[in-house]
Amino acid sequence: MGKRVWGLCQGVSTAVLYGSLALFVSILHNVFLLYYVETFVSVYKIDKLSFWVGETVFLIWNSLNDPLFGWLSDRSFLSSPQSGTQITSPEVVLKRLQALSRSGPLFALSFLAFWVAWTWPGLQFLICLCLYDGFLTVVDLNHNALLADLAVSAHDRTRLNFHSSLFSAMGSLSVFLSYSFWNKENFYSFRLFCVTLATLSMLGFFVVSRLLRHRFQNEVQLRKNESQALTELSVGQAPFTSPEKPVTLGKYLKQLSRHKNFMWFVSMNLVQVFHCHFNNNFFPLFLEHLLSDHISASTGSFLLGISYIAPHLNNLYFLTLCRRLGVYQVVRGLFLLKLGLSVVMLLAGADHVYLLCIFIASNRVFTEGTCKLLNLVITDLVDEDFVLNRRQQAASALLFGMVALVTKPGQTFAPLIGTWLLCLYTGYDIFERNSVAEAPIATAAVPVPLRQGCFYLLVFVPISCALLQLMAWSRFTLHGQRLQNIKTLRQGAQHSHLIDVKAI
């Protein structure tokens, strides 16, 4: 019976197995984002100083661990093809899968550490955040890197991303289920719910990574046999070139600074990360002050819930557009759509309640949808980096890590700039809820009412972001014919080592 089930599992396509890994992350991560602060503040009663110390250390660790783990993963790939024996793509994929098979279950265990009090709250908060984010980073980097390593063609990468988005949407259902178990007065049911999710995630990582590793182990053995045969044929012959030294971190950063498309992309993506987290941080505030007097609590809850799952479902449609139009044109279209909707909302004003509901929800959905498409652009940058710097193997995880290093400050800027603008417009300080919203601020300007200030924040932030992004995106040249040339060069350089996802 077990062999029969294993045989059926082996018949599942690589794209489906790759996408299912996103499910085992999202079922845990969405619950973590929703409840970890409330758990430590309301259940474990963490003090304010310990909370902010933990968040500060987490901010630093969160920014540095992406490039750190990316460098540790990919530093051996940075030397040129002449520096020695070439590492084949199946070997790289197998290395990523081995990392996922180890870090995936550990990620699930670190998730469980949040929901049982096992030491002083301040210390537990710090340790849990750093452990959880460390394992999450390893999982995300290797999963994203596989997108670049499993395929080169835009069609195959879009197909992989399509399945990843589909399973991520399925994973978002854990948020809806969690409402039935969450009770900070009686935590037992919620703990059992989290144990169930973590067990499912651990089993999923174990089974899927084993299935994928089994597929590529045969491919790796075949490449080794071919390499051994070539080595035997070349005995006694002088090497074509002398070995070169591996690329150091300093040299890699210098190469990256000369990569113009990378620089324009991270400039645009920094604004995108800022806007995504701005929407996440201020979504409840906009519902409270713009719509609470005009819609029911159930409608507000529906808007909040749909904003979690709709970006994943919407992304499925965006990916079909990417196959026809290309990622560059779809992303550009989404920027123009964001600008157009924001201008229409500004002209309509804050009194059109139904239009306001649609705008608040669609603004978050389209912004999150854009974020999910950008992994495809990063994989294209991996190809260009491979060609421009004549890599031995594409340093996929490292490039994803460097993108995260530059863009993650947007997560911190979002609440800081948002609260500062709100206070500047209205005099309202969200950290002092008892303060009068219309209290004067330290300027000569007369503060606007809180509702009007929230409306201005709601429309002017996306307008400003869209204009900055369109400006940076217009300078990005890795699309059209140039992109096709880059892909042709990479496929030519690794012709005997690439993997056809559809054939597996």
From TrEMBL:
InterPro entries according to UniProt: MFS_trans_sf, TMEM180
Membrane-spanning intervals of the chain: 15-37, 123-141, 162-182, 188-208, 262-282, 302-322, 334-361
**Keyword set, alphabetical order:** Membrane, Transmembrane, Transmembrane helix
Q: Which GO terms describe its cellular component?
A: membrane
Query: What's a Pfam family in this record?
Result: MFS_2
The yes or no answer to whether the keyword Hydrolase is present is: no
* Broad class of where this protein is predominantly found: membrane
Q: Which CDD domains match?
A: MFS_MFSD13A
Enumerate the subcellular locations listed in this protein's record, separating them with semicolons: Membrane
Q: Identify its membrane topology class.
A: Multi-pass membrane protein
Report the superkingdom from the record.
Answer: Eukaryota
Keyword check for Iron: no
PANTHER family reported for this sequence: TRANSMEMBRANE PROTEIN 180 (PTHR28658:SF3)
* Protein name, UniProt field: Major facilitator superfamily domain containing 13A
Natural source organism: Cyprinus carpio carpio
